[in-house]
Structures are given as C-alpha cells and as structure tokens.
Amino acid sequence: MKRLLAAFLCTALPAPGVTADRPAGIAAAEAIAKAALGENCDMNGMEEVPMAGPEAEGFAHSVYRFSYKPAYDPDGEDVQAELYLLFCGSGAYNIRNAVVLKTSNDDTPKLIAFAMPDVDYSYTDDNRNRLKADPTVHGFRATPLLVNAGFDEKSRTINSHTAWRGIGDAWDSGEWAFRNGDFVLTRFEFDPTYGDPLPDVPESYVVYEAGR
C-alpha cells in the first residue's frame, strides 16, 4: 500500500498545463488569501499565477461554479457560488492550497478555514514504524491551507493528501463536504509509520469519520 501511494504521488503531482483566461473574480480571491496568509501564501514567487486548464491542477489556480439552496430559505432562489482553489506555494513534493469562496448573497469573498483533528500518538522507538497505542483525537484546530487539494464537482467535496516525505510512506488525508455555504470535515485518515509496513501494524488509521 505504501509503495502504491508513493507511486501515486510521483504521477499525481501535476505539472503546469494549458492555462485558461483569468476570470473576473480571481484578483479579489488572490487578494483575500495574500492578506490573510502573508508569507505562507508566497505563490512560489510568481508575479502572476496562471489559471489551470480543464484537466490541469497544481501549480495554477482553479475556479468552480455551482449553485445551492440555502437552509434558511429552502424555497427561495438558488445561491450562486464561485470556489477558487488557489496555488499558495510548494515544497519538494507537496503543493499548498488556499480556498476562497464567493457567493451571491455575500458582498466579498471569504477565505475558508478547514477543521483538522489534533491527533495524539507516540512511537515505540526511533524507527517510527510502530505506535505505542492507537492514536487519539484530543481536539480540532482550523487551518486555512490544505496540501495537494482537489475539488470533486459532483460530490462538492474538497480532499487533501499530504506526503510526510517524498516516498509517501507516511501521510495524512482529509475530506470536507460542502454544506450550506461552508465546508464540513467528514473524514480524516493518516499513516504515521515509516518504512515498509509491519505485518501486525495497521496500514492507516481513520481518526475521524462523520456519523461514527
């Protein structure tokens, strides 16, 4: 499983594709992210981040448009939404993304903060290939940056997958579903162990799943 994840990361980290025209709202979305995140959203020193083409993601911005019925007025008009998945920098094998949402019932775009489990765990030794006990969640924090994020237009779900190092043997992955104008954490899974998996060690741990 870990080797498969490493291979996936090598092929999935995108290269710049054919860029599209910059939409009218992208400058405002960029300004919101830059003002809120400062040096954490350096956009890799690029003077102008390009827009991704239909199939391209990664070192570019993407924009998605959809509509939804607000819970406070289910019989009223649909709310129109524009979701900006912004490139905010990269490391050796991870891309940082900020998400800005603009809706027709808001005057200005807003930077989305995502709930993230604060997980407590410890290793049995310096090899870091086995935990002393199953990890536990002892709270949640909010983060304005996701790693290797993507948006599924059909399910209206944002996902992220962070490689803890280049070969991808240790990682974490989250899913957030769009609900009534915001994104709600629905699942978080991680594998904190390094090296080849031991036969008696779980491949990964689902530390949060909605409804469980």
Count of individual helical segments:
2
Quaternary form: single chain
Largest sheet entry: 5 strands, antiparallel
Distance linking N and C termini: 25 Å
Proportion in β-strands:
35-45%
* Average pLDDT, all residues: 88
What low-confidence regions span 5 or more consecutive residues with pLDDT below 50?
1-19
According to DSSP, the number of beta strands is: 12
Proportion of residues in helical segments: 10-25%
Give the topology string: H per helix, E per strand.
Answer: HHEEEEEEEEEEEE
Which outline best applies?
globular
**What class would the helix/strand composition place it in?**
mainly beta
Radius of gyration: 18 Å
Describe the structure in your own words.
Strand 2 and strand 3 (95-103) form a beta hairpin. This protein has helices at residues 2-12, 26-37, and strands spanning 62-68, 79-90, 95-103, 110-111, 114-120, 136-143, 146-147, 150-152, 157-163, 171-179, 182-191, 205-209. Strands 1, 2, 3, 4 and 7 form a five-stranded antiparallel beta sheet that branches. It has a five-stranded antiparallel beta sheet with strand order 8-9-10-11-12, with no helix packed on it. Strands 5-6 form a two-stranded antiparallel ribbon. The protein has two helices and twelve strands, in the order ααββββββββββββ. It has 212 residues and is mainly beta. The radius of gyration is 18 Å and the shape is globular. Mean pLDDT is 88; it is low at 1-19.
